[in-house]
Design a protein that fits this description.
Elements (H helix, E strand, L loop, with lengths): L5 E2 H8 L3 H10 L6 E3 L2 E4 L1 H16 L4 H10 L7 H42 L3
Antiparallel strand pairs: 1-3, 2-3
Length: about 130
C-alpha cells in the first residue's frame, strides 16, 4: 500500500467485506469517516487499519457493533483525524532523518573538539 487514499471498492477487496458493510460500519462508528470526493469515499491507511480491527472484533472476537464502538472509544489510538495523520507523517519523516542528523551532530562535535584542542595548544590552556 503506497497510496494516500483508497476507494471503497479497493478497501472492500482488501478486507474481503462487501461495500455496503463498510458503509454501515462507517454510519455506526465515528472513528471511520472517509473523505468524500463527489460521491466517492476515500479511505486513509489509518482508517483501513481501524477497519481491519473492527472486522476482527466483529467477526473473530464476536463483538456487537455497539461493543466495537465502545472498544474503539476506549482505545484512543485508533481514533484519528486529519491533524493526527499529518502529525504522524511528520514524525515518521523526522524519525527517518534522525540517523543522518545524529551522524552530522557527532561529526560536528568531533570537529569542535579538534578546534578547541588546537586553540588550547596555541594559547597554552588545557
Amino acid at each position: 500500500m503506497s497510496k494516500y487514499y483508497y476507494t471503497i471498492g479497493e478497501v472492500s477487496n482488501l478486507l474481503d467485506v462487501k461495500t455496503h458493510v463498510l458503509r454501515y460500519w462507517e454510519s455506526e462508528i465515528p472513528a471511520i469517516r472517509p473523505k468524500k470526493s463527489g460521491h466517492q469515499r476515500r479511505y486513509t491507511l489509518q482508517q483501513i487499519e481501524t477497519l481491519k480491527k473492527i472486522k476482527d472484533m466483529l467477526y473473530n472476537q464476536r463483538f456487537t457493533i455497539e461493543g466495537a464502538r465502545q472498544k474503539l472509544k476506549q482505545d484512543k489510538s485508533l481514533i484519528t483525524d486529519a491533524r493526527d495523520e499529518a502529525e504522524a507523517k511528520q514524525k515518521l519523516q523526522l524519525s527517518a532523518q534522525l540517523p543522518a542528523i545524529a551522524k552530522d551532530l557527532l561529526q560536528l562535535r568531533e570537529d569542535l573538539k579538534l578546534i578547541k584542542d588546537k586553540c588550547n595548544k596555541i594559547t597554552g590552556h588545557k
